[in-house]
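user: can you give me the structure for this one chain? tokens are fine.
assistant: on it. calling the predictor now.
[tool input]
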Amino acid sequence: MNSKGKILLVEDESFISELYQKILTEAGYQVITVIDGEQALKMASSDLNLILLDIMIPKLNGIEVLKKLKSQESTKKIPVVLITNLGSENIINYAFRIGAQGYLMKMRLTPFEILNKVDEFLNNPNYRMEPNTTSYE
């Protein structure tokens, strides 16, 4: 079976992780799931098409992981989309400055809306959300 793309999902809440993995897999994506920042860095490789990265994760938070990913030659070109419920405008703006392509609020989007956003990022490699289009409340 041909995959639409390979995604690393970094999410420590098992219900959310399993739900997103199921929806993305059924849509044709190959999904690798990890639950903390250290595992995310170990599993990040240049053959990934997208990283969905929660911010509030154990060991290294998502912002620390994003910084490390964007500073390494092998992973700096992988699109990273933060997927979280943390709505701090300062954190979101900082994440965009250090290389995030997008920011999705889990509590505002259904799993299928998340899938639509993933499709948008993977079908348009240069697509980047603008921080000012994100609602922070």
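assistant: here you go. The chain has a mean pLDDT of 90. Residues 5-133 form a domain with the Rossmann fold fold (CATH 3.40.50.2300).
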